[in-house]
Amino acid sequence: xxxxxxxxxxxxxxxxxxxxxxxxxxxxxxxxxxxxxxxxxxxxxxxxxxxxxxxxxxxxxxxxxxxxxxxxxxxxxxxxxxxxxxxxxxxxxxxxxxxxxxxxxxxxx
Length: 109
Prior knowledge:
Layout: H1 2-8, H2 17-23, H3 27-32, E1 42-46, E2 49-52, H4 61-64, H5 75-81, E3 101-103, E4 106-108
Antiparallel strand pairs: 1-2, 3-4
């Protein structure tokens, strides 16, 4: 839940936040700055399950959730390092990735 709310936060300016807004009730309003995070219709059912309320039927929702914008983010990195958490020694990614070099305009994997 925190990952999706992080993407939707207007201050984050996430490029793909609109995707979440297409299938989660209240997400567009929060992302545009006219709504509150509490009104985004996602909730934790238990430690491994969360529930979303959709604004309406969307047969494409399951396929959309495969997009990386819906992946869980390591929120401890964002909370601990902020934007500084994306450099050598602090870069956090999901998967078996090892960073060899970071250049000003590109990352070499």
